[in-house]
Amino acid sequence: MLTHIVIRDLVIVSALELDFAAGMTALTGETGAGKSILIDALGLALGEKADTGMIRSGCERAEVSAGFDLAGCPEALAWLKEQALDDGDECLIRRVLVRGGRARAFINGTAAGSAQLRELGDLLVDIHGQHAHQSLLRPAAQRALLDGYGGLAGATAEVAEHYRKFKDLDERWRALTAARDERAARIDLLRFQVDELDGLALADGELDELDAEQRRLANLGSLQSTAAALVDLLYEGDTALRDQLGHAAGELEGLAGIDPQLAETRELIDSAVVQVGEAAANLRQYLDDLDMDPGRLAAVEERLGRIHDMARKYRILPEQLMETCAALREELDGLEQADQTLGSLGDERDTALAALLEQARMLSTARRDAAERLSATVTAAMQELGMGGGRFAVEVQTGDEHKVSASGLDNLTFVVTANPGQPPQPLAKVASGGELSRISLAIQVATAEVGRIPTLVFDEVDVGIGGGVAEIVGRLLRRLGGARQVLCVTHLPQVAAQAHHQLKVHKQAVDGQTFTEIQPLAAERRIDEIARMLGGTEITDTTRAHAEEMLNGAG
């Protein structure tokens, strides 16, 4: 609820600080005293359009700060947390107007936009009358109010969950369906590509083997001649290395008999003779194994040519051909299974839609029952509020099942006829601000226990009424104040006397400038104010006694 407001240099208010309590608070004062200033300031804090013309004459800036206790407003707490603007159960909104500059806004000390102020304001305060923040005129708010009144929160949440599940399946099904023709063309292409790559029959490691074989075959003559020459050099020639090493070993054998230190050298040469023999044997075997088929080179080069041509066709490296074939085959398998997936997904979608429609139909039935009860309750309250013959109704129109939404199948409209014989019209088209205020009051009283917004402001709900009806209005506002915080701007003592608290607006001129002050009234001063409202500027003992009697009988 609203706990306090601070106003600086706004219109004819120089400086004002007010604290607010729970229950009903009446705002009274002489005509033209500026009772609407408080509502205008509150509306400004809650995101209404900023106008530098509201800055007090002679000042460069105006400021409004409004504090709220959110302990009983979980929706506002959740919104602040979602926006990373939360600060416990307290909320401070500040709006600054600068002459010649842009307005600035802050929520709990953090800069915020006017759209954010309006979103938060819609959760904190509802102003009824000829001003803004009349949430009852919005279809979504009407639906939420009816669902709350009928105890349908669980049913509406279940419909929303069924709708979310259906929407998810429907979007997936539509995406697969829309891609069906494109998918068929893609499948044809993939099949051709996979067959083509499979036809290449490239084996794992084959490319490296072919490259090595091609190099060997292309250099066959050089390999043969060089290997044969090495065999002669090492083993078979007239001056073969083996023979020379053997001669050296024989010479060292004689010398080692003279000097044993040469024995190790002789052993090394003997080992070299053995290794040279083995090397020559390997070379002879290599020469025997060399493929002398001249057609083999052509076959290898033709195979390599096919592999490289295929790689160029797919714009990849030859070594990526097998990986690409596997990826294309995986995509092909997935697409070929898509039709089967589409069928099962369609079945799931149909099942989810059937469950959604069943829940939505049940919700529609429950809404129509709640609408009848709410219509009767509000209509009865309108008779008490001086709108004899007036009628209120909640029209529930169940729409096409193909247009089911997260809120169900229904379009809700609050309609009203203020006088007998007039056709009912949507609440938003009711011309008289006073009538709209009283109708809103009747609705709020009927739904006081289920209303979401903690603070309600009624601006001059007593326009055009008096006497006993005015007292009834006051009692209804007091009753509503038992469930939520109520601020009421009123001219009637019968209404003001029912309030738990009373604020007086007073305007005065000082040094050629006009100032408005708002002061809370204690018991004695409240009697004086009610007496003034009863008898005008001259307060007599009779009017004071009458005022005291009205206050004592309040509630």
Structure write-up:
The protein has a domain at 201-336. The chain has a six-stranded antiparallel sheet with strand order 2-1-4-5-6-7, covered by helices on one side. Strands 8-12-13-3-14-15 form a six-stranded mixed sheet, with helices on both faces. Strands 9-10-11 form a three-stranded antiparallel sheet. Helix content is 55%, strand content 17%. The two termini are 22 Å apart. The protein has helices at residues 36-45, 74-82, 114-124, 139-149, 153-178, 180-200, 206-218, 220-236, 241-258, 263-289, 294-313, 321-336, 338-384, 433-446, 467-481, 493-496, 523-535, 541-552, and strands at 2-10, 13-19, 24-29, 61-69, 90-98, 104-107, 110-112, 125-128, 391-398, 410-417, 425-426, 455-459, 485-489, 501-510, 513-520. It has 555 residues and is α/β, with parallel strands linked by helices.
